[in-house]
Amino acid sequence: MSYPTQSGVQFSDEELLDLAAAWIALSVAFALLLEPIHRGVGTPTTFVLSVALSFVTVGVGFLCHELAHKVVAIRYGQIAEFRADYQMLFLAIMSALIGFLFAAPGAVYHAGRITERENAMIALAGPLTNHGLALLFFPLMIFPGIGIVGHMGVLINLFLATFNMIPFGPLDGKSVWNWNKGVFAVVFLASVALLAGFILMFGIGLW
């Protein structure tokens, strides 16, 4: 069975809508955790600031993670598009309202002939991109006024990398584990160590 190839990185209108919906929903959900205005904490102004903070940290981490999957999948000749799971986006916001977050916003689906190694490379692209973003956010921590952006950017991206490397179900770690357990161990343990080390050194408090 043959599949058509996708030339370059292209986005359908549906995909752009799904990416935007997931980006906004995740940002609002995280803001509800940071600034639970529905519980009388904070003000409308501080809540809007929390949404903006989430938009440029959580949102960027999610977006770049998914786009990395798409770019590498296309590099291997796949048809690849992100699809949001609107039920899970609704659940993310509802769970945030009661004090925790369950976020599975969707995924990049790809089709075409592919080897186990290539599938693992597509999976690895997401967590490794989050590591790179954490490195980019880190220097911002030293600047007054925007240090919180750097702190949350590092924390969220290290968390996304670690969580997605869990070798379970549809998570990225499962594909890497199935291909090469040595590579899986290196990336997963490095992700855990970086996240734990950051929390020990800088904590998780943002305000």
TL;DR of this structure?
The protein is mainly alpha-helical. The chain is built from 7 helices and 2 strands. It has 2 domains: 10-114, no CATH class; 115-207.
| Count of alpha/pi helices | 7
Number of domains in the coordinates?
A: 2
Mean pLDDT: 91
Question: Ends: how far apart?
Answer: 55 Å
Query: Which sequence of strands runs across the widest sheet?
Result: 1-2
Shape estimate: globular
What does this structure look like?
The chain is mainly α and 207 residues long. It has 2 domains: 10-114, no CATH class; 115-207. Helix content is 66%, strand content 6%. The radius of gyration is 18 Å and the shape is globular. The termini are far apart.
Primary descriptors:
207 residues, mainly alpha, 2 domains, 2 strands, 66% helix
Outline the fold blueprint.
Layout: H1 13-34, H2 44-75, E1 79-84, H3 86-97, E2 106-111, H4 116-137, H5 147-164, H6 172-179, H7 181-202
Antiparallel strand pairs: 1-2
Helix pairs in contact: 1-2, 1-3, 2-4, 2-5, 4-5, 4-6, 5-7, 6-7
